Amino acid sequence: MNEHSGRWLAGVAGRPCQPCRTFLLLLALLLLVRATAGVTSEPQHARSQVTSLQTHRVVSSSTVPSCFDNTEFHREVKPQRLYVDEKEQPLTMLTSSRVPQQLMTRMVAIFLKELLGYVNLTITTVPDTFDPGRVINEMKPDKQDSSSSGPLPYVNWGASPFIYEFSVVNGTLVVFANRSSMEVRIPKAMVSLEVWIPPGYNVESLTTDFETSSYLGSGGRFGWFMPKRLLRPDFIVEHWRSFTSPNSPTLKLFSRTQDDYNVTKFLRGQIEAMKAYVIVSWIGPNLNHKFIKNNSDLSGLEGEEERSILIFHWWPSVLLQPFDFISVSFPPCIDRTIKADGDSPYQCKYEMHRFHKFLWKKLKRYAKFAYNAFHKVQVNHTDFMDLLDTYNMWKNKSSLALDEVACHWMKNNKQRWLTWQPGSTLHQLKMVGLFPISTEKKNRRKFIAPGNVPAYFMAVEAVNKNKSILTDFEIHPIVLNGACEPAMVMRQFIEILQMSSSQGFYNNMIGFVGPACSDTVEPIAGVSKYFNVPIISYGAEGAIFSDQDHYPYFFRTIPENKIFRYVYSSYFKREGWKRVASLTENGQRYSEYLTLLRDKLQEDGIELETLKYPQERKTPDMTQYLLDLKNKNYYIIIGDFYQDVAREVICDAYHLKMTGHQAYLWFLPHWFSADWYDVDKVPSYTKCTTAQMHSALQGHMSLSYKYFAEDNDIMQEGITVAEWRKLYSQRINTTVKTKNASESDYAGFTYDAVWTYALALDNLFKKDPSYAADLRATSTIGAFMKEISAISFNGVSGHINFSSGASRMTDIIVWQFQNKEYVEVGRFHPPPSVSDTGEDKEIDFNFKINKDRFLWPTGEKPVDGSTCAIQAFSEFVNLECAYALIVLCTLCFGGLILLLFICFCIFKRRYEKKLEQIQELWRRRPLFEIFDGWEIPRDKVVINRKLGEGAFGTVYGGECQFDTEGWVAVAVKTLKVGSTISEKLDFLSEAEMMKNFEHENIVRLLGVCTKTEPIYTVMEFMLYGDLKVYLLARRNLVNEKNRNDDDEVSNKRLTSMALDIARGLAYLADLKFVHRDVACRNCLVNANRTVKLADFGMTRPMYENNYYKFNRKGMLPVRWMAPESLTEGVFTTMSDIWSYGVLLYEIVTFGAFPFQGMSNDQVLEHVKAGHTIAIPRGIKPQLDVLLKTCWHRVPSRRPQVLQIIEHLIAYPRLISPSLDGPQSSVQIEDTVSLEMRIPDKTRKLSLSINNRLQNVASSSRKRSMSGNMVMNIPPLTTSLSEDGMISAHSNLDALNLNHVMVEENEMGEDPLLPPAQYVSSRYMSLTPKEHKEKEKESLVSRQQGDYCTTDISRDLWTNVTPV
């Protein structure tokens, strides 16, 4: 509500005389006419009239104009910006149309913009409201659109800027974290300086997103205001009682606008409760200074007292400020209970209302200076009245008057707004240092270096004082004691993260400097990526942290120790040492580089044996480990352990005479404390004296980095390294009081780590200041890591850069211990090709050794302890031991190969003789013994027609005479005359299996003829052949319109056939057999159209385990196989259920080939990946469910056979044809060459070729061959016999094309297969024997991976007929 357009006018009725009443009515009528509208209400014994004026609510935004000149300040104001989620946002302040609030808001906005530098600042004006809830709603973010992609993530930022949880899983610390870079909802207004809070109002409901912990310093109230001069001695002190009497000396009239009726709606209830004689009118913008001036002094009618208007309004207000008005007093607000209608008693409306400041909670994080300034903003009563007087006296009341008055007040009240200053205007950044300052006595063996702490503080102070970097920021250092203990470092890491979240500096934390020890780095380096926290170590040399995929936020200013391998390798080669040993603690991260060293030495022909001792030992004694090295004759020993273990090792070496005086050479770490060997300072240590330790250490060597640059080098601060080291020494002497503190070799690395952070942050903020808003944001940390990787400067420790990886490079110094001090004897300068992550290469390094500086205790350099085990042979061949050993091994190996070849030839000859004897024995021995009771006299079998070619021979139709049944139609399988014993066993294996079965849905074995050749197996005759041919031949009947249940392709017929097969499978399952090849081609149809399972060549018993595992090479029907059979070779009844599902697919599609359009290999990968055949369209839901359950990935979730039978019985018409169009029913691997898969020993194929081949090219036709797949087949060789048949050799036990035979046919249509099933086979040239001189006869079979390819002449048309 605009203060000029929304005034409230009130008057009080005078004496109840009739002329007075007339006057009052006339005056009220006049005011109502001017107001254009009115509403009336009347109490019990009086009348109350209410009128209102319609206005519109308008929300507007404006920017803050300039006020001060640049010359008015003696300091430079740095621009400040507010970034949220890396996007700049305006600092939005909310105000109302009330002039006092607008003036106050503009004054503070000028302060923020021109004195604090917040250049992007907006003031949003909303209609007047005295309801705190409505004010907060105006400030809250817009409600999210329900049509958006999803709800924004919400985080309770009042509690923590991130959510994380630590858990231990299998001994590993696992961190679950939600980083604080989640999207933040920006409120429409971030600040409101003047929110009227009624007495007793509970503000907790308003503080979800906003806080109100400070007040403006003044308050306001509502009231009935009347001229003070009307008060006379006889006037009632409790003013409100004057209006309950008709003899009041004042007019009775209220006025306000209808737009703010929600503010004054309680007036009606108040008037009724008071039983006051009041008329209320709303006159809108007409209530102004002119109106009050003209109507505040009204003469009464003749003989009556002076009268005046009564105004309902609020205070402070520019409307009442120029006038001497007093407010009517009402009874005090005693009961502040909120009523059911959400309102409080009217008396509370007239109590003092506090002006609360509401601030968006996240301002503390995103605009800290403004946040602090808002809390300090206060205006007392005098300043407020002065401000309103200034506005009322301002001549120009244009739209710019508010800005002009606010600017005028700011210029004339400097002492007031100076108290609003937030203090320092530098953004605070936190940096955490983890140092091994101290440890418990029991862990004294750990590395302790408190001398790094002063270097850390020196670096932070230098950065803060430097005016060229991070000019708007100030780094606050935090120091934590890690004690070189992994558990303690991890605990400190967790605690500082928790503290940063609770104290609000998590997003302003730069990162960690440290820790020092490699063992302590891995835990926090691994989890730091979950918190987007970088870590720069100054002392962790372990080689395992160079993998930036696992440790993306880890860097170090110290090189990693795997560079030592080049130094060791080069030095050992120069000295000619071939045998080296190492002694280190098991599980120690620092010594991980020894693995890389072993590989490097192995390349150079140097042996490195690694000996490790456990971390937890019963005694500190190391004698047993040293004896192990001594017994193995190792003289060059690399020791990597903590200094307390070093004392034990060197002391024990002294007693075992394994020191430099006995030609032993020890390599020890150089990072031990300077006096680590001074055991006289350790009263409890009595094994050795310091003098003995000196003697034992004489001549030992160590490697170290170059800790500091050259003294004359200029570092990052513009001073020399020597000057810095002098300052560091002074700092150590003045700040570190403990007796164990001394200058640290790692101080330079620590100092440079701080500067690495500072320079990288400075570059980052200069490129995009928005990054400073949230250092934990994903994009910020990514950009930060790039800046660190690109950093390059000259530090205290030398040149710092990470171009080769997460670790920097520096020189390696070789030291020798001579006369109680270390002497530099060599230096290694790594070239750029030695990268942090690169593999070992032949590199051109600069390694200088000063042999004149060496001092060996024995006077000669040590030897490696090598001895030659074949010394005599070495002298005989006149070669060095290593070369002599190679020659000897070669001779021995050659002799062994020759001996094995001779043995092979002998055993091969014996085997061939034995095989001939066995075959001769089988020729003389009848086979009927294994078929006792199944033998049929050959004269009772009559063969009258040829049905086709089988794997082992010809299949005939005929009749057989039985004693009980007479002559019965049968099918007779024959085996070729002259077959081998192996072929006979394979041929009879199916019959051996079939004799166990007797079921109406299993093809029945009737007998065998084995006493003479050819061998017969006699089975019941199935008139319609296999089910696939049956279905293919009847595809054309599917589309006939008039079909009934008796038709051959009816739903009932198809379902009945599926039921027959299921019953056969149930029978096999009861007998604990698994078929392994359930498919339409292996189901035969008899004259009654009963379907029976056949072809038991792959059937196997499951024994007691209920499964059969296939573990030899051979052909398998991959397209029908279950996933567990493909991957593990396991066959169960459940795998037969999968194949049964494929069979149902064949029935539904009338013989369509499974997995259309996919090669054998593609099918194999497709099924392994968890996919199945696409369900045919248009099938019934019950069948859809059955197929899906049959093809379930988990075998135990597939249905039992009996469940399938019950399902088919329940739905006798379940299966209906689904033919979208012609589909392939055989597999064609390629249109150019036909790839045929060959099994190991399951079935065979013969190619019948007659002498008419030369005439068939013009009169033959083509057919595709059914394509089962095979796996891991052996190579094949074949030859062509004179009669055109392929004969098998010893390595060709079977040739199988998955139940097909290939033969030459005459021209003509095949009644069973449609024309689409013919294909040209182009590669194998077959010519009769008499044409050999014209064309070379060839039949090539070769192995290609898992395939066997047989080439057939393109001019030969072959017909593939399923058996």
TrEMBL record:
At which positions is ATP bound?
K973
Q: Which GO terms describe its biological process?
A: cell surface receptor protein tyrosine kinase signaling pathway
Membrane topology of this protein: Multi-pass membrane protein; Single-pass membrane protein
Q: What class of enzyme is it?
A: transferase
Protein kinase domain ranges (all copies): 941-1214
The protein's UniProt keywords, in alphabetical order, are: ATP-binding, Disulfide bond, Glycoprotein, Immunoglobulin domain, Kinase, Membrane, Nucleotide-binding, Phosphoprotein, Receptor, Repeat, Signal, Transferase, Transmembrane, Transmembrane helix, Tyrosine-protein kinase
- What is the residue range of the signal peptide feature? 1-38
Q: Which GO terms describe its cellular component?
A: plasma membrane; receptor complex
UniProt xrefs under PROSITE patterns: PROTEIN_KINASE_ATP, PROTEIN_KINASE_DOM, PROTEIN_KINASE_TYR
Task: Kindly list the GO molecular function terms attached to this UniProt entry.
Answer: ATP binding; G protein-coupled receptor activity; transmembrane receptor protein tyrosine kinase activity
Reaction(s) the record says it catalyses: L-tyrosyl-[protein] + ATP = O-phospho-L-tyrosyl-[protein] + ADP + H(+)
Q: Where in the cell is it found?
A: Membrane
InterPro entries referenced in this protein's UniProt entry, alphabetically: ANF_lig-bd_rcpt, GPCR_3, Kinase-like_dom_sf, Peripla_BP_I, Prot_kinase_dom, Protein_kinase_ATP_BS, RTK, Ser-Thr/Tyr_kinase_cat_dom
Q: PANTHER family given for it?
A: PROTEIN KINASE DOMAIN-CONTAINING PROTEIN (PTHR24416:SF489), TYROSINE-PROTEIN KINASE RECEPTOR (PTHR24416)
Q: What is the designated name of this protein?
A: receptor protein-tyrosine kinase
* Gene (UniProt): IGF1R-L
